[in-house]
Amino acid sequence: MASKTGDVRNYKGFQAITLLCLIILYAPLVVVTIYSFNASKSITVWEGLSLQWYADVFTGPESGKFKLAARNSFVIAIIAATVSTTIATLAATAIVRGGKFRVRTLSLGLISLPLMVPEIVTAVATLIFFNSIGFDRGLMTIVLAHIAFCIPFAYLPISARMQGIEDTYEQAAQDLYATKRQAFTRILMPLMMPGIISGFLLAFIVSLDDFIITNFVKGAGVETLPTAIFGSVKQGLKPNIMAISTMLLSVSIIMVTISYFISKTDNTK
Amino acid sequence: MAGGAASGGSATTDTYAEARNWLLLPSWVVLLGLSLIPVGMMLIYSFLTKEFRGGVIWEFSFAAYDQFFCDRGLFGDEPCSVEWTYVTIFWRSIWQAGAATLLSLVIGFPTAYFIATRPEKVRPLWVFLITIPYWVNLLIRTVSMKFLLRDEGPLNSFLMNIGLINDPIHIINTNFAVQLGLFYSYLPFMVLPIYAAVERYNFALSEAAADLYAPKWVTLRRILLPAVKPGVVAGCILVFVPSLGSFLAPDLLGGAKNFMIGSLIEEQFKGNAGNWPFGAAASMILLTMVLIILLIFVRQQGKAEKGAG
Fold it and tell me: What is the ipTM of this complex?
């Protein structure tokens, strides 16, 4: 870096700290990924490369449990992300394209509520709510809790995108006798697609990754991947957990990367 | 990240003004039903009587709050003297969250500053690099941290191999491990708002200070820092608040001696304690603390904006 003595922008050591920061962020993930390919039964000793723990996840003694948990996790994440993205898109349209109105700020506050309340408090409140109305805990309670929790994560990229689209396109469509509904579905929605996909992917990851709320509202015997992993870890770290973790973290990283590049595309030009 | 949803935006139009109530209806129904009303129910439950092994009996009782604040002796018939057990757990949580926030600030500020002073084109990529780990499952990140830090883990064997230490450093099950775990969990929340603030900063101010012979570090402290203070405060809040109620880092990295609020609450519902009203009361106290912090923050930001405008 150009760190001339007179340059007010660069400070000695800041670059080193940034590198340290990246090392701290990535080292644990890299180490677990490497050790998931370990041939040894012990998590401590390195005995060479092997895919045996990945095979163990799919065919080993615990494979049935993990497959069921994975299916639950993905079904919940797809439903929760779809519903919360739809709700967030509608809400963003009202808030960004609905003019000034009295409950606008209140609606924004309500949408950001799940982000401001500590997750464990949300978990307790949701559990108590389902208990008080006599709703049996199971897959459905997890789906409902995730929908609410995912809305702000879907809302952020969607509303950011909508604010970036000038309304001249919709105005032009309406000047050419398109109804408002047509202007929405034929003009705004296609322009919004990158934001909507990005919001969907973030909501999907948040749901797939959630442990605390799921752990509280799940029924007895219902497991998602994070709760199954937590249960296993409590009995000690095993290599097959590292293999699952590596797969799950790859899914998250791939989806975030897709979301990043999609939200960067600009189809209004 | 959390601030984004609340900031609204300016490029708004009224194209769909007639339909706005219908458009907002689903989010109101879902968030009232699944966020706001549940918090209300939690408040009610904290004033009910506990049923053994979970659940409540619908009878008004102050017992949960009494248990939290009052020590009434072995048989529960003495007058109230201060109960320190739970206050200590809350105090420890505040202390741990504070230490994690400080650690995040020390590492996060230079990082945010460094990124904000890169060429404009590569900045989003740097920000992306910092945020990727946040999207990886928190449980997996915490487990990975535990794996790395173990006495016989890769970090210790690496340090022993290069001859820096002779015996493994014992990190797991210490306060420091929890702080490190919290720092690792929420670091992007510190970097992002500071980055946003430094990016908006007018460096001509720093140059003016330098022209007037201000040493670089004085420029940083006296000119830059006051200008980006709102970003720094936002970052500290965004790390402190989730750290305060965290469960995974203290549970997996801290062990039984480093019990925090999150574990105390979890134990009432999932563990052996099974005292729902007490868990609800502890959650209410935590929520109240968080809301007070957020309220002070919003007031201050409001003042800062008025001062700037």
Answer: 0.85
The residue type of B273 is A
Give residue-wise pLDDT tens across range B12-41: 677 788 788 888 899 999 998 888 999 999
Contacts with A123 (C-beta within 8 Å, 6 or more apart), sequence order: A145, A212, A213, A215, A216, A217
Contact between residue B282 and residue B222 where contact means Cβ atoms under 8 Å apart: no
Q: Around A60, how many Cα atoms within 13 Å sit in the side-chain half-sphere? A: 15
User: Do B249 and B32 contact (CB within 8 A), yes or no?
Assistant: no
- Hey, CA dihedral for A41, A47, A52, A57, is it positive or negative? positive
For chain B, list the domains and their CATH numbers.
91-308 (1.10.3720.10)
A200-211 per-position pLDDT tens digit = 988 998 999 899
Contact (CB, 8 A) for B185 and B157: no
Phi, psi of B108 (to 5 degrees): -75, -35
d(C-alpha A213, C-alpha B3), whole Å: 22
Q: Are B93 and B81 in contact (CB under 8 A)?
A: no
A257: exposed, middle or buried (Cβ count in 10 Å: 0-12, 13-18, 19+): middle
The answer for A 121-180 residues in CB contact with B (under 8 A) is 121-122, 124-129, 131-132, 144-145, 147-148, 151-152, 155-156, 159-160, 163-164, 166-167, 170-171, 180
Distances (CA, A) of B241 to A128, A151, B127, B187, B287: 22, 20, 22, 13, 10
Query: If DSSP codes are grouped into helix, strand and coil, which group holds residue A237?
Result: coil
- Centroid of chain to Cα B32: 24
Amino acid at A260: Y
Residue A97, classed as helix, strand or coil, is helix
**pLDDT tens across B214-269, in order?**
888 888 888 888 888 888 998 998 899 889 989 999 988 987 777 899 989 998 98
CA–CA distance from A254 to each of A81, A98, A177, A247, B47 (Å)?
17, 35, 42, 11, 46
Interchain proximity A180–B15, CB inside 8 Å: yes
Cβ of A97 within 8 Å of Cβ of B8? The answer is: no
Q: Which residues pair with B60 in a beta bridge?
A: B48
How many whole angstroms separate alpha carbon A261 and alpha carbon B91? 43
Q: What pLDDT is recorded for position A6? A: 52
Q: Which amino acid is at B228?
A: V
Please give the average per-residue pLDDT across A7-15, as a whole number: 81
E strand residue ranges, B61-194: 70-71, 81-82
Question: Quick check: B265 and B282 in contact, CB under 8 A?
Answer: yes
Asked if A127's CB is within 8 angstroms of B8's CB, the reply is no
The C-alpha angle with vertex A161 and arms to A156 and A165, in degrees rounded to 5, equals 150
